[in-house]
Amino acid sequence: MRVEGVVFDLDATLINLGGFVDWKKAHIKAMDAYLTCGCPEKLINRFSEKGLFNMLNLVREENALGMDDAEVERIQEEVYQAIESCEWEGALNSHLLPGCSSTLGWIADQRMRMGVATSNSQAVAEWILEAREIRGYFSSVVGRRPDLKMKPHPDQILKCFEEMGVKPDRGVVVGDSVKDVQAAKSSNVLAIAVPSFFTRRESLEEAGADYIIDNLGALPILLSSLEGV
Prior knowledge:
By secondary structure, the protein is α/β, with parallel strands linked by helices. It has helices at 23-36, 41-48, 52-64, 69-91, 100-109, 122-131, 155-164, 178-186, 201-207, 219-227; strands at residues 5-8, 15-16, 95-96, 113-121, 140-144, 171-175, 190-193, 211-212.
């Protein structure tokens, strides 16, 4: 296989952001924003039990059944902005994970294109990548966008490859979560998992990860074996 592009997840894959974000506060803000937009309280409470990011996807899907695309996206944008304030609070303390800089440098030396597909705020993701001095490695950054379904749907992954100018069958996805693996598989892209502190190896295997590596620093060795170099 000739690997031409690598799409990374952001949080808990390249950078620790989530450890500094008050996700409970973000969850409450998201619920309040949906209610302010007129979404039924009973629906929001039911989907809320699935967790913050599952709720975002589920409410979007439910709204799409009875609203036009513009209204669905308007509501999502309102909710995303509410959550973003919590992510900004954690952004200053975010930091690169071990092996990140050396791995990105190696991939760049191989002339593979790179992108980021993340469920985090687009603006926050861009700022963190710039602040940690790695934005230049990426030809595409696809964060939470109201026009795209988030992982585990394939939308963000496919948009990232499109913006990178790489065909998905010539690329790989690298992430820490089951949703990253599911999004890769639904995009027909090779899935490489790097377990974080809150993901179980067994869950990644069950999701269909093609490869599981212990840390980001092991990625160059794996990519070399795929390249046959």
